[in-house]
Design goal:
single chain, about 900 residues, Immunoglobulin-like, Zincin-like fold, 5-stranded mixed sheet, about 40% helix, globular
Length: about 900
Amino acid sequence: MSDTATPTVIRREDYAPPAFLIDTVDLEFDLVPERTIVKSTLAVRRNPDANHATHLELMGEQLEFISATIDGQPWEQVRAHDHGLTVENVPDTFTLTLTGACDPAANTTLSGLYVSSGNFFTQCEAEGFRRITWFLDRPDVMSTYTVTLRADKISYPVLLSNGNLIAEGDLPDGRHYAKWEDPFRKPSYLFALVAGKLVALEERIQSGSGKEKLLQVWVEPHDLDKTRHAMDSLIHSIRWDEARFGLELDLDRFMIVAVSDFNMGAMENKGLNIFNTKYVLANPETATDVDFANIEAVVGHEYFHNWTGNRVTCRDWFQLSLKEGLTVFRDQEFSAAMSGGDENEAARATKRIEDVRVLRQMQFAEDAGPMAHPVRPESYVEINNFYTMTVYEKGSEVVRMYQTLFGRDGFRKGMDLYFQRHDGQAVTCDDFRRAMADANGRDLAQFERWYSQAGTPRVSVTTHYDAAAKRYSVTLSQGYANSSPAARETQKGPLLIPFAIGLIGPDGQDLPLKLEGESAFGATTRVLEVTETQQTFTFVDVAAKPLPSLLRNFSAPVIVEYDYGNDELAFLLAHDSDPFNRWEAGQRLATRELLALAARASAGQPLEANDALVQAFSRVLTDPSLSPSFRELALMLPSETYLAEQMAESDPAAVHAARQFVRKRLATALKAEWLAAYQANLTPGVYEPTPEAAGHRGLKNLALSYLSELDDPADAVRLATAQYDAANNMTDRAAALSALMNASAATGAGYAKKALEDFYARFEQEPLVIDKWFSLQATQRGTSQRPVIETVRALMRHPAFNLKNPNRARSLIFSFCAANPAQFHAADGSGYAFWAEQVIALDAINPQVAARLARNLELWRRFTPTLRDAMRAALEQVAARVKSRDVREIVEKALA
């Protein structure tokens, strides 16, 4: 709910069951863009498990009240107000019929019922249903729905809602109707309708039990050729969920609909998933390898919600990670399986590395700021602000730890018990934890702290080797160093941390492990259960001093503190059998070098090259035993944002200078190797979005990116120009354009101008590709003669720019503010002034999108004094002018 009322803090401890329950909902829509009439007939009864109430309070926003009846009789004791409807003196059981109207055409918030490109769509999570009709709009009120849609047949030939189509036909005056029935109880946030001029790719499959299922991907007619990959991803998701978890599609049909105006990535409405076009539409000419992979992951995520979120849902919004963290874990496992199956650990590790990179760059930063909150928050002002990295990504890591503790079979047993106990219910994170504990015969009371404590735990490691006794002791100490005040308030005691460890001998081979008290050697990776503030584990019969490989496969979302030497990191990068830790060693080595250089740049000292990093990268680049996808990830330097967060005072300009210095050094020292890697990883022939082909393209284009840093980028310009002109796929075309823009920034030459003009002309009718065009320019390096802010402001006047479209706003404004730190954090404060203007403008149109942008300055206290003062001024300007509680919650917490 976004409004100008005084914010009310909603607390988890105040939860009370609803005074009334609604067993059935019958909705009738007469769809007209400017005034849609909605009639809802509700079968209401008192909740025997709640306190008695004489009146029924329903939520509602921006609705026009027309009439109300109870049991067919007009009911005068009804009062409509800004936030809902009060129905006085109601009986214990009754049928309430409400008629109201809303204005979808004027709904720029994209929450509730709205119009996009002349079609009707809905978005009801978290609190959008109250913008459609008055209701007990909370997730623990679950009902069965019957929905009748009526509309002009020419303008809206397709009428869709949740569940199964049970009737359709023509009406007088050129209208028609469709009636849908969803046999499964669901909360109102899972309601959906779509009406408009759409076409579908259809496929019929048989479920594991032999039932026929109709699958449909609905899009605007000109996008039909971009739906095959989404359909294939849906089929793969269905098959994987049957095989991995024994979960079958429960409806006769499953529909995906793509819309260009959407606040999020997608929404799991029961049987009628509504998606941002970005996560549906793909063909080789318009979508990159990353787009293809993201579509597969998001289609999987929303389909998996059918069980983890829909069949079993959240009791209240504090339990959001019950569905989101669990389903992110499921989609990550699905994507890993699609990358290389269960047998290809290297391919699975690549996916794991990608996921952890996102977690550490974004969620760890969230944990350190004013918006820090536990996976299960204790309070909120605006629930839309808590669709966060902590709830999703850290929540996924918490779920993954169950699998680490119990193994895949034990995790499956816990899932089976969870559904056995709670199918059709609205439950809590504690219910999921209890199912895991009971299924595996474990006491997980301490594990609850992962849900209730905010901040990123740190595990300090010290080791001691007793050569005479052949004993190697590892002491693990856990705590929360450098937590934000918001996080410290929640920290009550030590966690149960599954800490995976291996020991590597001087020959580079893993050692078999035997803990003190054990009679036989075990596997070469051991999961230690750390439950105390400090614990020591002793390995025996260790013939030579080993090097520890710590937190293998990132077995817990913690920061490991261990004083590796540079030579030791290089050794791990060369020899560790755990792919994640091999990557991690390279990242630690690079981070150490880059932070040292950034400190020199910040102090105005000259930067000096260190060949140790060059040599380590050279070994990775030229190692044929490593997959191209792993080498691409290992050879990427840590991001500027991540590096700045590691400084005592963030200095984006110094970090940028250091990172560019190292990129140029790596480009120059390894020029021949980059050229060889480029040639060795060409992918001639028809484009295929397979993981293997994508890995080759990724390494090839990384090589091109490095080559574009050279003082004389002639080779890079030649290769990039030829690649751009000959490209048969968007991955190669966009990478070539990016390389030309890099070379232009490095030399001041106009290598990219012609390609940028060609790119726009070639794809002017493809909105998602034009988003890439905007984003590439917003994230370019820029020059002292023309800072990127000037380009961004000019592009905001471009006829293709539309602030009301979230994808377009994200492609230009968000890309500049979030993904171009050196330019955004300009010393003159111009980036912050621009940010404030855009947050205020978006707040008046779409508070959810505005709040996402507002978070870019929440860590302002961690920057250098000059930047800090300018950021605070921008935050105060926004705080004085915004009206939505979405944005106010963000900026007020940042300033507090």
